[in-house]
Amino acid sequence: MLKTAVVILNYNGAEMLRQFLPGVLQYSGFDSVFVVDNASNDNSLEVLKYEFPVVKTIILEKNFGFAGGYNKAIQQIDAEYIVLLNSDVEVTENWLNPLEAFMDCHPEVAACQPKIRSFQKRDFFEYAGASGGFIDRFGYPYCRGRIMNTLEKDNSQYDTICSVFWATGAALMIRKMDYIGVGGLDDRFFAHMEEIDLCWRLKSRGREIFCIPQSHVYHVGGGTLKKESPSKTYLNFRNNLLMLYKNLPEGELNPVMRARSFLDFVAWLQYIVKFDWGNAKAVFRARRDFKRMKADFAVDRATNLSHCIVSCIPERTPFFLLWEYYFKSNKTFELLSHVNN
User: Which residues contact 180 (CB under 8 A, 6 or more apart)?
Assistant: First the structure.
């Protein structure tokens, strides 16, 4: 059995493999790196075969998405720790050591992440994960170093090891037994929000999630979908609602969902005012498809609630993030209400 397997999911990312895979091999070990190809139709397989022949390759017969692709691959990999690593991540020397050391010393911790900096603006945090993820009462995620679309400069202000609600899927180390134990990523999500849903299930079962900033990597981000693309808007809105439905405690479900109906209407209206018809339609479709799909998740909700031993998770904060950001102008993590209370 491997100690740690670094697993990169690839879809039509030949150029990213050429750019970032050499560093992953150099700083992670040739024997521990796996590339999972999600039925690419570019020359990814040729690049792997002829330019990186030492890399272990798992070839999937179709594109199973982020969640499904990792689920299929991890079943085939025998390792204590699995690192889900995006293909557009530049790792750094000894990046795995602090993560492994922390997990070895803390068996109660199911998963952790390094600090994520921007590949383009290297002194700033990156959107997807920054220095550890949190979530507000209505399901809006944020990070140490990233609130909404505001990215902070990394001045070592979030270099403490910290318990978080969610760890980014861009660079997520997780015990394989925990991953399998809670059912892995929900492949019905296809992409977006699936790692937050996974971490919520782990946290509610009493397992811990941490950010270990002593390890850091650089993430390009937006490699598949542009941030404001209707496809990403659709998946983020739909999957966020599905995640809430699957995991919210019984007493919170109806109040939170009523609030989200209003807040999603406001988001839809903002897109209409800006004549952004694509994203307006995406929000409408997300709400419609959530209602259509909800019944298929009823068993998952019942299962999650039956296994829940921690319903009040501290890293799921009680305030309303949009109010903090837009009305109180608290645009950095340190200014948020929970930091000062």
Answer: 74
